[in-house]
Amino acid sequence: MSAVAPTTWQSRPAPTDADAWIARATEVAAILATDAAARDRAGATPYAEVQLLKDSGLVTLLGPAAHGGGGQRWTTAYQVVREVAKADGSIAQLLGYHYLWNWAARLVGTREQWEHVEAEAARNRWFFGGAVNPRDADVVVRDEGDTLAFSGRKSFSTGSKVSDVTVLEGVLEGTDDHVFAIVPSDSEGLAFHDDWDNIGQRLTESGGVTLDNVRVGWGSAAGYVDKTFRPRVYNTLNVPTIQLVFVNFYLGIAAGALETAAGYTRNTTRPWLHGGHDRAVDEPYIIDIYGDLTTRLWAAQAFADRVAEEGQRLHDDPDAVTERDRGEFEVRVAAAKAHATDVALEVTSRIFEATGARSTATAEGLDRFWRNVRTHTLHDPVAYKRREVGRHVLIGELPTPTWYS
Asked: Which GO BP annotation is one of this protein's (predicted)?
């Protein structure tokens, strides 16, 4: 991968506002775009790409400014994820999941815990992964007195080998109590498997992980005081927060597909021989395709931004979040997720109608946009997102917090 030396950014002032951070993300995307198709085909572990995110400072975006972080809000994080996704959906997913897991201490932990984690993460530019796939059997957490031991297996662990720290989650043995903890990714007993071999999002290192008595102190059990969890409604905001990450890298991938396709149409696509036009850009059906897809994408982006602002108000005052606040936000996120899924799949599929048969050549790599969206949008059935919206409209029901709602 073409890389920018750290001094390129270190010799310039760090971004200080949202616009400057989004501009930084645009720079990162430009670097990733130079060989995105080739890297997708190679499917190599993205060590260099994650280093790029560190060198640019994007990994510290949500961290406290006092400790070298960007001090930014979730609304900016979503925009940054979307910008990076225009060039590389895999790296955008890694970054978006990193933001969620970096924030997990604040979502679940005590003030002392999250202040410590966020300070260390910003100072050391930690990159976060997570072993929290809820479709698998729960990891068992055994109380050993002063320590906890996590044992089990998860089918997916996004970030795995490229992460500095990993968020673990399991159920305390003999109880229904869930426990989150952050551990170094090279911890004894934590083994990542090289078994991520899917058609899309190939560089996300989302393979399985085995936990064999991975030990942490009770002090690292997020939100626990004297071995008792102290719940807040804000704890349950992890699902709508990560689902908005999904929304934004779907829309970023779609935007990148449109931009790439438009460049191909301008420079390479030939007009139809019976259409009477000398240039593809003058073909009425091609003009209509780009007009239609762009209109749909802009509408989806505007809605996603509106929902992100609504969520930011909850992040700004965590202790004030009520069950109704959380439920209404989840419904709005569900609507944004459903709409973004439909738009991104349509955009990444229909661009070929405007680029023509020769654009399907492997070297062009236009298929990666659809493969990436198609792969990740199967994360959870979009029909259940529409169901949340429909039941709220018809009977005022608010979604019960689960791992997917």
From this structure: L-leucine catabolic process
